[in-house]
Structures are given as C-alpha cells and as structure tokens.
C-alpha cells in the first residue's frame, strides 16, 4: 500500500479465479470510488489468476487487471499485491486461504471457507498466526433492511425474542437436467446445500440474533443423479440435455431445529432453519422472520429493499407495516437518494469490499471475519453429524466473531 499525492491510499488487489464471483469482487473494488468517495482508498487491480486462458484474457482486457497468471501462487508472491480476493471453487478455499495467510496477504474469501469445520479451523489458525485481516462473502447481512432488523432486535423493539424462522430456498437445481457441477461432488464441495446456502442463513441468525448453541437436523437428496458438467465450463445454473449421468453425493435439502446461546441478544430463543437448492417456485427466496413478545419482523432477499414490521402488542389495528429501505438505514444512502429506488445484489458486495478495506486500514472492525466463517461452519458440521446420527448436537462458542451478543465475547 502507498499514499498518493492527494492523500488517498492505493491498495494493490489480487484475484484468484475469474469466474462470476471473481468478476463481482472486481466490480465491487471499482465501484468503491463512486459509493464511498470519502473512504480515501483507491483499489488498484494488479494481478489475477485463473487456469483458463480465456478468463485470464478477460481479467486484463475487461476487468482491468494489469497482469494475469495461470498459477494462483504468482498472485500471492506479487509484492505489489496487498489484498487478495479468493473466489475459487470450495475445495480450493482452505488451501488458498492458508497460502494467502502465510504470504502475509489480507484476504476476502467466499464461503464456505472450507469443506466443513476442520478445514475452516485450519484457515482461521493460519490467519490468526499471520495477523492478516480477513473478510467473508456473507453478503446478505449487508442489506440495509437486515441492518435495520438487527437494530430493532438489539433495541428491544420486538420485545424478548422467542423464536426465529429462516429459509433459503433456491431453484437453481430444481430441473433434473441441471448440471452436476463440482457443487454436487462431496470431495470438491463438501456438503451440498448445507455449505452452499445454510451457511449464509446461519450467519444471518448469528449476525442479527446471536450464535446457535444446539442443533438437530435432517437432510435429503431429491435427485440422485445429474448430467455431468466438465470442470471449468458453464455454471451450476446450466441445463444439459442427454448428458452422461453421474451420482449426486451431497444433500439437496436440509432442515434444522436450533436453540440460540444464552449469551445471545436473543438468548435461548428457538427456531427452524431450512435450505433447498431444488425448490420449485422460489428463485432466490432467502428470508428470516423474527418473533418477539412485543412484535415481529420479516425480511426476504427477493424483496431485499423491504422489511415487514408488525405493530406492537396491544395495538388496536394489529398487522404488518412494510418499511422501505431509505437513506439512514444501513448503507442505503451510499447507493440511492431516496426510498423506492432499489439497491441490488452487486451493491451488497460493494459494502462488503468497503468493510474489508476499512478493516485492512485499521479504521473499523465491522467486517465479517474468519471467526464468523468458523462459527457458521461449526453449525453446518454439527448439522451433518446430527442428520447422520439422528441426534442433538451442541456447538461451542467461537471467540472473535461479529455475532449479536449481550456482552463482549471473551477471548
């Protein structure tokens, strides 16, 4: 990093994997100057890595990186790279995260960080040992309506929280012709919808209500086989006619009963969490409903700019009011001038980039971090054990997270 003549801090950016998410990270860095001109940061897209020659060319010619390499280690060895975005498939996350930490590079990594609790813990250990700043791709927590929900819960507006109902229902694999990408192979992805979607939902619960302490789960695989998609081609949204059928090795659906920690803002609240990648109807219905003794509130990503909030207990005309995101709610004002003009998915990643670089510069600590990823991974791994053994599983508290707690978490 270096300070430019105008006082702006230039941060050298490296990218590992130039797929859809890598492109999104790159756009987020670029858009920081527009959404946060007062941040005083200028990301410089220095070095990208991808095994595909076409994607390397795209990184330079379209995204604006100064150079590109086939080996991700070249990015980590580049002295002009200060921070790295890791957007590769799941099975490479742990290896790359540990390597980034050992190279002394701060990193922003997509979830799941590892194929379960053990790999994620190894990345956390390496990051802590190296003293690097980390940020996780938990983008849904940045929606202004979610930030407002968190504030309502913390302020006691909904009363004592009694229960939560969360779901992440997607249809990207609802068609049986849906490609068998790496996401359906246990060696490459680890768990299925647990790691892919449930991890996001668990983070929403942790961020707004507090950590999950106990879980009982069940899972199912709706489609036992899918047509093969060669690695490095297409996406998991692809449909394949007449392809070679191969087995699906992880779950399409997961459901959990949960109890929150006694240290949570919503201490000892209970709830149900569900995730599916084969739901017919919902496109990306990722939602959370929180119920308290004085009211409730409901949010769904398909209407990310809205929060439904109930009237307080005892109101003469009970029901829900739809509150539209507006300036003053979360980071909304950085993107739109007034309610009714909506933010989008890409904007949530710009917020994530801002929080990451602010943390790198030591200006704030509100970015998600590797301990948030490990906390979510512990719940996902406990759910896998529970589903296999038909048992209740306890989850140990993870220090250093950004979970909603009643008091600072002990080290």
UniProtKB/TrEMBL annotation:
Pfam families, sorted: GFO_IDH_MocA, GFO_IDH_MocA_C3
Entry superkingdom: Bacteria
Residue span of region Disordered: 388-411
InterPro entries xrefs: Gfo/Idh/MocA-like_OxRdtase_N, Gfo/Idh/MocA_oxidrdct_glycsds, GFO_IDH_MocA-like_dom, NAD(P)-bd_dom_sf
Key words of the record: NAD, Oxidoreductase
Domain Gfo/Idh/MocA-like oxidoreductase N-terminal: 12-138
Domain GFO/IDH/MocA-like oxidoreductase: 147-297
Name of the protein in its database record: Gfo/Idh/MocA family oxidoreductase
């Amino acid at each position: 990093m270096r300070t430019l003549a105008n006082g702006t801090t230039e941060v050298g950016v490296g990218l590992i994997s130039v797929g859809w998410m890598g492109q999104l990270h790159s756009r987020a860095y670029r858009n920081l100057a527009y959404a946060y001109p007062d941040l005083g940061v200028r990301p410089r897209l220095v070095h990208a890595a991808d095994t595909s020659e076409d994607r390397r060319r795209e990184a330079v010619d379209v995204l604006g990186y100064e150079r590109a390499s086939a080996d991700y280690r070249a990015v980590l060895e580049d002295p002009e790279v200060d921070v790295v975005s890791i957007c590769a498939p799941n099975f490479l996350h742990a290896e790359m995260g540990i390597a980034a930490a050992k190279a002394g590079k701060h990193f922003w990594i997509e979830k799941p960080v590892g194929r379960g609790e053990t790999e994620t813990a190894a990345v956390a250990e390496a990051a802590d040992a190296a003293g690097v700043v980390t940020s996780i791709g938990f983008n849904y927590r940045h929606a202004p309506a979610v930030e407002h929900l968190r504030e309502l819960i913390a302020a006691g507006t909904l009363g004592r929280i009694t229960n939560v109902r969360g779901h992440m229902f997607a249809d990207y694999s609802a068609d049986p012709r849906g490609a068998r990408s790496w996401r359906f192979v246990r060696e490459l992805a680890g768990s299925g919808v647990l790691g892919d979607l449930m991890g996001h939902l668990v983070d929403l619960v942790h961020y707004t209500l507090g950590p999950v302490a106990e879980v009982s789960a069940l899972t199912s695989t709706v489609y036992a086989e899918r047509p093969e998609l060669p690695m490095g081609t297409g996406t998991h949204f692809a449909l394949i006619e007449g392809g070679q059928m191969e087995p699906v090795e992880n779950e399409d659906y997961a459901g959990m009963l949960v109890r929150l920690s006694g240290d949570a803002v919503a201490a000892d609240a209970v709830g149900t969490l569900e995730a599916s990648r084969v739901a017919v109807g919902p496109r990306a219905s990722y939602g959370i409903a929180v119920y308290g003794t004085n009211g409730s509130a409901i949010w769904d990503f398909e209407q990310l700019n809205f929060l439904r909030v109930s009237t307080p207990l005892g109101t003469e005309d009970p029901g829900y009011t739809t509150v539209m995101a507006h300036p003053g709610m979360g980071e909304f004002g950085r993107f739109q001038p007034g309610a009714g003009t909506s933010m989008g998915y890409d904007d949530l990643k710009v917020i994530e980039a801002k929080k990451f670089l602010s943390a790198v510069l030591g200006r704030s600590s509100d970015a998600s971090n590797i301990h948030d990823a490990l906390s979510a991974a512990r719940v996902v791994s406990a759910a896998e054990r529970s589903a296999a053994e038909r048992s209740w599983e306890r989850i140990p508290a993870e220090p250093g997270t950004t979970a909603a707690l009643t008091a600072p978490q002990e080290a």
